[in-house]
Amino acid sequence: FITTRPPPTYTTHYCPPPSFVYPPRGGGGAGAAGAPADPESVARVRARVLEVRDLAPGSTVSYGATYTTKRAERLATLGIGYADGLPWRLSNRGQALIGGVRVPIRGGVCMDVTSVDVSGAPGVEAADVATLLGRDGGEEVALADFAKAAGTIEYEVLTAIGRRLPRHYVGGPGAAADGSR
Predict the structure, then answer these.
(1) How many CA atoms lie within 13 A of 23 on its CB side?
(2) Per-residue pLDDT tens for 33-56?
(3) Whole-prediction pTM value?
(4) Per-residue b/e over 31-63, b at no fewer than 16 CB within 10 Å?
(5) Are 74 and 119 in contact (CB under 8 A)?
(6) Is 29 left (phi over 0), alpha (psi -120 to 50) or beta?
(7) Does some domain include residue 24?
(8) Domain count, the chain
(9) What does the pLDDT average to over 132-161?
(10) Distance separating alpha carbons of residues 102 and 97, to the nearest angstrom
(11) pLDDT score of 168
C-alpha cells in the first residue's frame, strides 16, 4: 500500500490549484534530490510478508535462478512486484526495511512478488510489513536512493506506482488533526 501526504510547499502558497486535484508539489515533499535536509516524505510504499522460508547454501531463488544462496539464508516473500510499480531493475540490488532493519532484495523482482533476505532481521513472520520506500523505525529507504538503485529518476518511481496498491491519504482538506479521515 502507499501512503501519501500533500506537503505545504511554495506551490501551495503561490500557485492557484486546479479545482479537482491538489496543486503540483514538486519532488521536495517526496524526498527527491535537492529537498531540504530531513524532510517529511509524502510517499511510502509498503507490502506484507506472504511467507518466510529457510534455504540451504546453493539454493536458487526467482525465475531463471537469478540468485543463489551462498550460506544458509532466511528469505521472506513480499506481496509486491513489477505489476505494482516496483522496478524490475531492483532485482538483486534493491532493499526494504522490516522492523527497522535493512533487508536486501534477492533474485528478480517478479510480477507479483519479491524476495528479501531476512537472515539479519530476527522474528520476521508472515503478515509483517516491509517498507520499500519511506521510513520504518530509525531507518529510511529514501526516494533518491531507491531511484538510484533502480537506475531511474525520482519522478518515474512515483508515477510508476500501480493502481493495484491501495492509497491511504493523510492530511490535506477534510482530514482530522490526527491525520485520519
Answers:
(1) 12
(2) 555 555 566 789 999 999 999 999
(3) 0.77
(4) bbeebeeebebbbbbbbebeebeebeeeeebbe
(5) yes
(6) alpha
(7) no
(8) 1
(9) 96
(10) 5
(11) 84
Cell of 94: 534493491
Contact 106, 118 (CB under 8 A): no
**9 belongs to a structural domain:** no
Domain contains 27: no
Nine cell digits for residue 112: 507479483
The CATH number given to whatever domain includes residue 112 is 2.40.37.10
Q: Domain range holding 120?
A: 48-138
Q: Is residue 167 part of a domain?
A: no
Other CB atoms within a 10 A radius of the CB of residue 167 amount to 10
pLDDT of residue 115: 99
Cell of 42: 509524502
Any idea what DSSP says for residue 9?
Answer: -
Task: Report the C-alpha gap between 107 and 63 in whole angstroms.
Answer: 8
